[in-house]
Amino acid sequence: MTADRARDAEDRYAVADLANAYADALDRRAWDTLDDVFAADLTADYNGEYVLTGRDTVVAMIRSYLDPCGPTQHLLGNHRVTVDGDRAQLTVKMRVHHIGAGDRAALTYECFGWYHAEAVRTADGWRIAVWRQEVTAELGTRELFVGV
After folding, report:
1. What is the distance between the alpha carbons of residues 27 and 23, in angstroms, rounded to a whole number?
2. Closest CA to 147 of 112, 103, 113
3. Contacts with 76 (C-beta within 8 Å, 6 or more apart), sequence order
4. Residues 135, 112 contacting (CB under 8 angstroms)
5. CB-based contact 140:107 (threshold 8 Å)
6. Is 49 exposed, middle or buried (0-12, 13-18, 19+ CB in 10 A)?
7. End-to-end C-alpha distance for the chain, whole angstroms
8. How many domains does the chain have?
9. Cα–Cα distance between 58 and 39 in angstroms, integer?
């Protein structure tokens, strides 16, 4: 394998792993680890419902949904990554299951679709600069998200 092909493979793996780290951070409620996933000046679009700028703003919005929620499972598959120098495009299928908490523990909400990302190489490694969630189907009820 040539050095260029090896670097391309390493870059593709690193970019795909950003999505995995995102899903893991949300399910574990490990909010600080998102500093290693998202660029500080992140732009995010959550299915057109929220279009936000800034990592801290995006994490606060995510927390407003998940902190009062019960267990979640963000499943990802079919990662597609293209790298062009210090920029990369990522598309990954997602299926996300949420279970309510407290008096809403019997409620569930599930969504299916895609995450799309633009990543940039930084001095600290790859970071997602643009994040977009595209929901293509929903099951259950959003009523389990208390106060949102």
Report:
1. 6
2. 103
3. 19, 20, 23, 92, 93, 94, 115
4. yes
5. yes
6. exposed
7. 51
8. 1
9. 11
What CATH number corresponds to the domain at position 115?
3.10.450.50
DSSP state string for 110-144 = EEEEEEEEEEEEETTEEEEEEEEEEEEEEEE-GGG
Torsion 58-61-66-72 (CA) sign: negative
What HEC string does 33-68 produce? HHHHCEEEEEEEEECCCEEEECHHHHHHHHHHHHCC
**Nearest 5 degrees, angle CA 81-CA 86-CA 90?**
20
pLDDT in tens, the chain (148 residues): 587 888 888 999 999 999 999 999 999 999 999 999 999 999 999 999 999 999 999 999 999 999 999 999 999 999 999 999 999 999 999 999 999 999 999 999 999 999 999 999 999 999 999 999 999 999 999 999 876 5
Identify the domain containing residue 77 by its residue range: 3-144
